[in-house]
Amino acid sequence: MVDELVTAHISLVGHLVREVLARVPSHVDRDDLTSAGLTALVRAAQGFEAERGVPFARYAATRIRGALLDELRGVDWASRSVRRTARGLDETRTRLTHSLGRVPTDVELAAAQGIPVEQVLANREDLARAQVLSLEADDARGSYATELPSAGPTPEQAVEHAELLTYLSEAVAELPERLRRVVEGYFLAEQPMAELAAELGVTESRISQLRAEAMVLLRDALNTQLDPALVPAHDRPDGVAARRREAYFAAVAERHAAAATRPFVPQVATSA
C-alpha cells in the first residue's frame, strides 16, 4: 500500500518543487528540495489513514509543502556574492565610522570600497529582498502546516507582492541616514544592539528608540503609497516633525516614480 501510494504520487513532489522554485532565488538547490519532498511523501504514505475521508493527494501535498518550507528555512536567501559584498561594506563602514566620527554616506562608502555607489544601493536592496523572503518563509511555514494546499499566488497577488518589495527597499533607502543604518544593521546584517550602539556612539536604549521610529516611518511610507486610509494624522500637521515626515513620504514616492521610468536591464546570473 505504501509503495503504491508513493509510486502513484511521485509527480506531485516534482510539481510542488517547481512551484516553490518559481518563487525563490535561483541559487536555491532543486535536489535538496526534491529530497525533502520525497521523504515527506514516504512519511505521508506511511501515516495515511484512508478512513478519515481525506484524499491522499490532498493530505500528502500538505505534508510535502511543510517539508519544503522547513528546508527553505535553512536557506540563505541572499547569494554568497551578495553576502560577501555586504560583509566588505560593513567592515568598511565600521572603519569609516571610527575615522570620521560619524556614519559615512553611501558615496563615501562606495569610494572607500572602490565600487560604484549604485553597487552599494543594489546590495542594500538585495539584502532587503532576502530578509523579506526569509520572513515570508517563516510565516508560510506556520500557515501551511494547518491549511490545505493552495494553487499558489494569482497574477494579481504576484504583482502586489512585487510592488510591496519595491516600495519596501525604496522606503529603507530614503530613511534618514541614522535610521537607515539601524534598520540595515539590526534587521539585515543581524548586528547585536550593543554593537550598533557602539558604532553610532549612543546607548542601546537609543538604538531601540531609533528602530521603533524607523519601523513607524516605513509602515506609514508604505501605507501612504498602498493604502493611505491607514496612515494616522499627525498631532501637529504644521510642525517640523510633520513636515519632515511628509518630505520623507514624498522622497519615497519620487524614488519609486524614477525607478518606474528606468528601462529594464536583465541581470546576468554569475556563479558565486
TrEMBL record:
Report whether Transcription shows up as a keyword of the record: yes
Annotated GO biological processes are: DNA-templated transcription initiation
Keyword annotations for this protein?
Answer: DNA-binding, Sigma factor, Transcription, Transcription regulation
Q: Which GO terms describe its molecular function?
A: DNA binding; sigma factor activity
The residues covered by the RNA polymerase sigma-70 region domain are: 5-77, 89-141, 171-219
The record's annotation in SUPFAM superfamilies points to: Sigma2 domain of RNA polymerase sigma factors, Sigma3 and sigma4 domains of RNA polymerase sigma factors
Transmembrane ranges? Answer: none
Which InterPro entries is this protein grouped with?
RNA_pol_sigma-70_dom, RNA_pol_sigma70, RNA_pol_sigma70_r2, RNA_pol_sigma70_r3, RNA_pol_sigma70_r4, RNA_pol_sigma_r2, RNA_pol_sigma_r3/r4-like
Question: Could you identify this protein by its name?
Answer: RNA polymerase, sigma 28 subunit, SigD/FliA/WhiG
Species the sequence originates in = metagenome
